[in-house]
Amino acid sequence: MTDLLAFPAVNATDEHEPVQLINPEGERVFAPSNERFRSLVEDLSTEDLRGFYRDMMLVRRFDTEATALQRQGELALYAPLLGQEAAQIGSAHALNSTDMVFPSYREHGVAHVRGLDVAKILRLFRGIDHGGWDSFEHNFHLYTLVIGSHALHATGYAMGLQRDAQAGRAQGDEAVMVCLGDGATSQGDVSEALGFAAVNNAPVVFFVQNNQWAISVPNHKQFKAPLYTRGEGFGVPGIRVDGNDVLACNAVTRWALEHARSGNGPVLIEALTYRMGAHTTSDDPTKYRTREEEQLWRDRDPIARVKALLEAEGGWSQSDETALSAELEGFGEYIRGYVKSLGRPHTASMFDHVYATEHALVNKEKAWFSTYEASFLDNQGGAR
User: Fold this and answer.
1) Which residue among 169, 307, 359, 362 sits deepest, i.e. has the most Cβ atoms within 10 Å of its Cβ?
2) Does the pLDDT of residue 138 top 90, yes or no?
């Protein structure tokens, strides 16, 4: 596999063209420059591709249900992944079970592939808890709300794996993937992480989902050079992939993880995709982007192209569609039922667990808030 670990030219005619194995029409792409990546997914069967499609449909249904629940007042906030299913499902399926993932706050597809019950992620967005789960059971870290900070956490973890292997405490075949958005690359933490990862040759892959918008800030106001070249100044090779192509995302991430595991150091992947929904449910994207732009990307829907490929190759039938539709309905019902079963958290609980121990100022603020909240209730405990 040595030749596969050499950093490839993406395309002989356009160095910025992304790696693509399925085009928007659902046809396989056989460009000579992509041959090495096609070879990396030759082991994937029609059944594997069906599994990718099912996962993408499940997380899109999760997204639809969670967005609706927030609009109905059942969630305080929600960060949609609509349009980014291929990037997340493709990259997640490239991971080994022992690899560690550091997500941001919309990696619901990666969480699903890593075996989390995604319904429980909504505890965070309902305010039930701070989003805790057993990170090491699934090798999937907690969601990170502070943008970009987890790039340093991932790099430090990768350096720890490296040192454990050197000391004989680990086999040395593990890697780390950190999931970022294009907006996060503007944070200093990400630059620091690239620097530490490079000089330490850490086994970490920076998987950047460039969904074109950092909330309302477009790419051209964030960076001048193509994002996948960001790592060059640090000595980190970068590669650009069609983020709406699940096979290409899987192949490129496989290559990058093997590069990292083999002692060749970090890699930065830029997956070109699009946030088809809002940044979060508190955002209104109609204020800063056009209907024409949104339609352009709807025509590149990552799920539609996988379905088209499966149908063209005889891998999907009407009975399959019927069965999946029934599964999705049951899944949606489960999401709704689970969230509503959680009950409403007591408002003052926001002050709990701010610090590991008692904190005088937090206690004072909680007491003031409790008095303030009580002022809106009558003597019988009902709202005025």
Assistant:
1) 307
2) yes
Which range among 60-64, 226-230, 338-342, 352-356 shows the weakest confidence by mean pLDDT? 352-356
CA contacts within 13 A on the Cβ side of 351: 16
Secondary structure in 3-state letters for 3-50:
HHHCCCCCCCCCCCCCECCECCCCCECCCHHHHHHHHHCCCCCHHHHH
Q: What are phi and psi of 28, to 5 degrees?
A: -70, 140
Does 236 have pLDDT greater than 90?
yes
Whether the pLDDT of residue 120 is over 80: the answer is yes
Distance from C-alpha of 16 to C-alpha of 23, rounded to nearest angstrom: 17
Phi-psi region of 247 (alpha: psi -120 to 50; beta: other; left: phi over 0): alpha
What is the identity of the amino acid at 203? P
DSSP state of 247: H
Please determine, for residue 166, whether its predicted confidence score (pLDDT) is greater than 60.
yes
Tokens of 260: 């990292």
Torsional class of 265: left (φ above 0), alpha (ψ -120 to 50), beta (otherwise) = left
Residues 6+ apart with CB under 8 A from 45: none
| pLDDT tens-digit readout, 20-41 | 999 999 999 999 989 999 999 9
Average the pLDDT over 354-378 and give the result.
91
The set of residues, in sequence order, having a beta carbon less than 8 Å from that of 106 and lying 6+ positions away, is 79, 80, 81, 84, 181
Residues 6+ apart with CB under 8 A from 123: 129, 131, 342
> What gap in Å lies between CA 309 and CA 298, rounded to an integer?
17
Contacts of 81 (CB under 8 A, 6+ apart): 59, 63, 88, 106, 107, 108, 109
Q: Can you read off the two tokens belonging to residue 253?
A: 């991430």
Q: What is the pTM of this model?
A: 0.92
287 DSSP assignment? G
Residue 132, token pair as written in the block: 């805790």
More confident residue, 53 or 134: 53
**CB-based contact 306:59 (threshold 8 Å):** no
Model pLDDT for residues 204-231, shown as the tens digit of each residue: 999 999 999 999 999 999 999 999 999 9
R_g over Cα of the chain: 22
